[in-house]
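ingest -> fold -> write
write: protein_1
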Amino acid sequence: MAHSTSDIHSITLSIDSSSSSQTPLMGQRGQAPEDITFESLKKIITEDDVERKRSQEMKQKAILEKFQTAPFEQIVAKIDAESMVFQNKLSEILTTISDENKDNAPQHQTTAVFDMQFPDLYVY
């Protein structure tokens, strides 16, 4: 295995520091960000997961509180409204599917079994 004379840490980039905006590759004041490692990526993912779980728990707590404190009539009205939206969408989908099947179905006449002519090979 041949070793290269260049070192990966000796590579530098010249960046125009005239813009005051921060780019994803550069930290504050034009400094290079910290090294990206497996551990840093794992930490970011874990933090996102914890935040997602926390927000999910807050939503569940709000729903539970709503069902515990809201009047029964209000809960029924909300569920009826949601179910009507679902029912309308389902009916629309089923109507579309049945219309497509009617258009694509081949038109053939039904024949009684005793009127059918079978090939001699199948008749005993």
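write: protein_2
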Amino acid sequence: MNTRRKFLLASVLALQNSSFIYPSCQKCFSRIILVSKRSNCPKCGCTGESGNANYRYKLSLKVAESNKLFVITVFGSCLDTFFGLTATGLHRILKATLDKVQMPVTSYSNALTTKEKPEH
């Protein structure tokens, strides 16, 4: 990993990846694998309950400075201020919102069969 820091004043052109939060290991911050109700870190072997997983930000951007293009990736809690909350907090909000708007397929198909269908 490159430990040098450089400051860049640039314009953001695009998000490189729409997935900007990931479940992370509490010990090494690597991406963990969530399976059923368990989590496993492939890097350090740490295991736990998937419901207790912490999330981290990983924001990959394509930016332009003058006539140069760069792809930069920003990790971790430095993005908490930008988003206004932690990645774990954002994940909880997104999950709760998705749970509210999703309708089971069986309910949707039942609703269609009970409504009067227009004739063509």
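write: annotation protein_2
Residues 60 and 73 are 4 Å apart (CA to CA).
The helical segments are 80-83, 87-101, 105-114.
pipeline exit 0
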